[in-house]
Amino acid sequence: MQNSIEIIDPGKPTVGAKLRFQTPQELQKTVDNYFDSEEKPTLSGLALHLGLTRQSVWNYGHREEFSEIIIRAAQRIETLYEEKLVYGKHPTGVIFALKCCMDWKETSPEVEPTQHDIKSQFQRDLDEVTRLQLKES
Question: What is the secondary structure of 9-73 as a DSSP string?
């Protein structure tokens, strides 16, 4: 019995689930409907309205013909989160959402030591040397 190897043509579409939205216009209309009808939009709410999982929404975002629609929709929600972070009273949940769902990361700028920091470190080093000398004598 001979083993056969299937060669996959990268230019040929693979078999998979049929797309829920066949055209970018159809997706855009449904996304617009969500934002027009939802007072407090969220990523999960958008996915639910589209009849997709959140992962499926991101999968649409990886398809060239749909990517701009998904990116703009996510940016609209991110803008709302950011406004709540800056102008809201309770930012903790917003910070969590931005880090987990919007890929925000904490960064700290590289800070050059000030003259005061250098003097303080020098003084600590000098104190330590003095302490050690006193201990030896």
Answer: PTTSPPP-PPPS--SHHHHHHHHHHHHHH-SS--HHHHHHHHTS-HHHHHHHHTSHHHHHHHHHH
Distances (CA, A) of 59 to 5, 66, 104: 29, 9, 20
3-state SS class at 113: coil
Distance of alpha carbon 95 from alpha carbon 103, whole angstroms: 11
More confident residue, 131 or 76: 76
Global pTM?
A: 0.57
Helix (H) or strand (E) holding 134, with range, is helix 115-136
Longest Cα–Cα distance of the chain, Å, equals: 91
As given in the structure block, the two tokens for residue 53 are 């999982």
Q: How far apart are CA 134 and CA 128, in angstroms?
A: 10
Contacting residues for 88 by C-beta, under 8 A, at least 6 apart? 94
In whole angstroms, what is the distance from residue 80 CA to residue 42 CA? 9
pLDDT at residue 118, rounded to an integer:
62
Q: What is the dihedral of CA 114, 118, 121, 123, to 10 degrees?
A: -120
CB 43, CB 101: distance < 8 Å: yes
